[in-house]
Amino acid sequence: MNANRPGLRELKKRRTRTAISEAAIELFLDHGFNQVSVARVAEAAEVSKRTLFAYFPAKEDLVVHRLADHETELARVVRARPSGTDPLTAVRDNFLRGLRERDPFTGLNDHPQTLRLLRMILDAPQLVARMERFKAGAERALTEALRDTADAPELTARLAAVQIVAVHWALADDNARRLAHGESADARREGAAADAEHAFALLENGLRTIGSTGQGHRSTTR
Amino acid sequence: MNANRPGLRELKKRRTRTAISEAAIELFLDHGFNQVSVARVAEAAEVSKRTLFAYFPAKEDLVVHRLADHETELARVVRARPSGTDPLTAVRDNFLRGLRERDPFTGLNDHPQTLRLLRMILDAPQLVARMERFKAGAERALTEALRDTADAPELTARLAAVQIVAVHWALADDNARRLAHGESADARREGAAADAEHAFALLENGLRTIGSTGQGHRSTTR
DNA sequence: GAATATTTCTGCACCTGGTATACATTTGCC
DNA sequence: GGCAAATGTATACCAGGTGCAGAAATATTC
């Protein structure tokens, strides 16, 4: 009954939506997120401000709606894992594959366009904050995936989820910031993989090894 | 030269600041965060809107400035731990102590005033988002503490920090939401302690045990 | 294919958070 | 008491976002 077949109405809606989004991103990339008002975006997209807000509930959504898929990515990976594989392995393998393929969600993609977008986001605190909210969504989705497929009780699932998401995010964030500061993806490649291995090993084996003062794997003598 | 001795100026400043904050919190508690404009707060505090913003850079700060100390609490606990104790143990012990003492940062404080504040925050998405940013600050501070006191390399410190903060937060959040939904702190007490033990054990031992399909501690047979 | 119902778009007025400017007041200090 | 620096105020303004009433476009029914 709803959007089964395109239909002229649906078609125009989709067209308008992408028009607004593209106009917005172009302006934001050129002048910076905070330097462009939504009124100007609306004008560029030849739409009224009111209509713009009908499509995108807030200014930040003009940017982040593109990344919305990634919110549930981890959950999907966990759900789709081959049986017999534990969730953590599935996530790790997926991340390493992402690194090899320069998947943007690993932070290791330095195509100029991706890089510009990244810098634009990092320059706008509101956008960074909005990205943070993605973490919460990812945590929720992953919690459910773990609860459903790993036979873990609610709390365990949730705790595992927040840990995995936090580490995953930290890795991607680290890569992204390095690239944004000029490092090349090729140069970063090996380091990123090693870091990821290290990170997932830590996640798997726990923080037991993290230093009681003067007792770590490489202790200071004080 | 600056705030060494109170001095009339400093004194008035502090007085104004608390006056604004108290007026704000009272109004927010009574009518809800989003139902009260900053103009109304300024009026109630007998200050101009501009002055209000001189003291609190954003509306949310009128509420969250009180919680600002907790941002570095984990880092402080880690830094202040007795030598020979590993950071994770220090954090766990501190959390368990917090539970016993109903320290609000564990989420297990149901004094009516705390509860009202909590509900008010949970009802205002902007405030929740603002709290999220505390996590980022806590992560940064804890990263440094671990780097400095646990002889961990930067990345390891960061990874451990984000895991610890995530779990810590999840525990507190869980407690807080239960209380906000009517559970009593006394009733929640034991469960909270058990959950915390479980959570820190997981953190310590890693996610190795979390279910490859059909292989967990309590496997489903599908 | 015309009439009608429904959805979408628009223009406008309006609210709120936050800032710039220019001026008045207070405080610290001599 | 008098002067410089710091604070406070009033006012006007900007930008994000919403409510509303009606115009325009699309879907539907006969």
TrEMBL record, chains A, B:
Residues 37-56 bind DNA. It holds the Pfam family TetR_N. The keyword Transit peptide does not apply. The keyword Transcription regulation applies. Keywords: DNA-binding, Transcription, Transcription regulation. Residues 14-74 form the HTH tetR-type domain. This is TetR/AcrR family transcriptional regulator. It comes from Streptomyces beihaiensis.
